[in-house]
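ESCALATION

Customer reports they have been waiting on this structure for their group meeting. Please prioritize. Original submission:
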Amino acid sequence: MIKRSFVLFFCVCFLVTVKGYAQNISPVVDISIIHEAQKSISRGIEYLRGTQQDDGSWDHYPAITALVITAMLKSPGGIVQPGDPDVKKGLDFIIKHVKPDGGIYTDDPMRCYNTAISLLALVEAHNTLYNDIISNAREYIIKLQADEQVGYSYEDSLYGGIGYGDDKRPDMSNLQTALEALARTESYEKVSEADLKTRNGSEPLRGNRPYYEKAIVFLTRSQNLASTNPYSWASNDGGFIYYPGNSKAGGTRSYGSMTYAGLKSFIYARVDKNDERVKACYRWITDNYTVKENPGIGDNGLFYYYHTMSKALKVYGVDFIETPDRQNHNWREDLMNQLMTIQKEDGSWINDSARWWENNRDLVTAYTILSLINAGWTE
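Update from on-call: job pushed to the front of the queue and completed.
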């Protein structure tokens, strides 16, 4: 029996190697699902190759281009080879939109959105030629934060948030993307001589990162948790809304995508998992767990929900979710099976609800590929 088990284990390992699967497959996902997911991802990538524009972009837009490029760069099993010409053309398109202020955007008002997502693609490229661009872009994002530098005081309800960049109204969606970009690029940050210290006379020790502390203020004020949120509208279910006092689910009702954004943001802002805000947020997730809809708003923003859900649970570090009925759900397999089931014949994905651009196949296909990768593979 022992010999037979060893042979079976060896065969599985050999299959993983010869098929070109990534070596960082999640150990809780069945290998047959990984195999199907890789084929699904490959079909999605081929669809996206066919929609790339002559200028190297997807939809002539930095953020959508960056999402596609990130999906291609992170694709497992040699689906996209190093030096891929489509990737290079996409990166070149992003670089063409670098502005003197450090941002990466077009003439439309969604400057933070484009910069943060482009920043994540450039980091994934692992090219030292982009170091200065990355460093300047993260500084640009920090300057967009609603704080004293732009006329906000701590008493303002929107203090610490980050918005699109065209106005002074921050929101959870932009903040969560900005925080991820800042967290992923900490090694690129600029530190003044006054802030630079040394440990034991040699090892560099970077200064404080106040943008995290300010962001936590906004996060706390966007959460339905009466024990920590100072505003009277806050309920006590632990979920999140779009920004203080405003929810896309109506009134101040918590909903799925923003609650996962809240969990992800707490982790990137280095709030301890035992903090009551994090625990309450995760409780809402277990109480409302589903891969069939965006809880609270149905099909609206469904693929954004999948993308945010997969990222949040991955960085939170959980493989199984226990729901109130005491059932343990393997969220990775649940999500992968759901996404593969709804893939279109041409390899793309699309939402029947057009809200938040989800009638755009390029955007939704990129979201979905990244969701599959987040669910099936670890870093």
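Sent to customer with the following note: The two ends are 34 Å apart (CA to CA).
Escalation resolved.
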